[in-house]
Design goal:
Length: 160
C-alpha cells in the first residue's frame, strides 16, 4: 500500500462525475488500500477516489467509531432521514470550512473490496462523511453546497 498525492482545487478531476467500477480488479483493490493509507496520513475522516486523481466511484471513511474503516465501491444512498447543519472541511480544499445542511441519517449500499454487496447505516458525523464523499463522486464539493464558508478558527454559523 502507498500514500498517494491528494489533488486540490482547482483541479478539474474534482468537478467531474466519476465512473462506476464495473470490475473489481487487483488495481481497484490496491487503490482502496492506498486511499485508506492516504486518508490516515492526512488525518482525514474520508476520501474519494477523484481526490487522488482517479475518477472512479470509490470512497473510504473512518470517523473513529465502531465501524472502523469503511471502503466502499459504487456507493449509493438508499435511505435518508432527518437533517443536520454543521461545519465541514475537505482535504482537497485546505484552509476553508463551510456549514452544510445534510441528512441526519443515511443508509448506503455498495461493494466491498471482494465485490460483495453490503450496507451501512450511519448518523451524525458518519452520515455527513458519506454524503460529503459521495458528492465528490458527482463532482460536487462542499463549497458548492455550503450555506456559509469561512476560514478555520472563524466562527461557524451552525449551532448543532
Ligand atoms: Zn472532500
Amino acid at each position: 500500500m502507498a500514500i498517494r498525492l491528494i489533488v486540490t482545487e482547482p483541479d478539474e478531476v474534482l468537478h467531474k462525475k466519476a465512473k462506476e467500477v464495473t470490475k473489481i480488479t487487483p488495481n481497484v483493490q490496491k487503490l482502496v488500500g492506498d486511499m485508506a493509507d492516504t486518508m490516515y496520513d492526512a488525518q482525514g475522516v474520508g476520501l474519494a477516489a477523484p481526490q487522488v486523481g482517479i475518477p472512479k466511484r470509490i470512497i473510504v471513511i473512518d470517523v473513529g467509531d465502531e465501524n472502523g474503516l469503511i471502503g466502499m465501491i459504487n456507493p449509493e444512498i438508499i435511505e435518508r432521514e432527518g437533517e443536520q447543519f454543521g461545519p465541514e472541511g475537505c482535504l482537497s480544499i485546505p484552509g476553508l470550512n463551510g456549514d452544510v445542511r445534510r441528512s441526519m441519517t443515511v443508509t448506503v449500499k455498495g461493494l466491498n473490496r471482494d465485490g460483495e454487496e453490503f450496507t451501512v447505516t450511519g448518523s451524525g458525523l458518519l452520515a455527513r462523511a458519506f454524503q460529503h464523499e459521495i458528492d465528490h463522486l458527482d463532482g460536487v464539493l462542499f463549497t458548492d453546497v455550503a450555506e456559509h464558508i469561512y476560514k478555520p478558527g472563524q466562527e461557524s454559523a451552525a449551532k448543532e
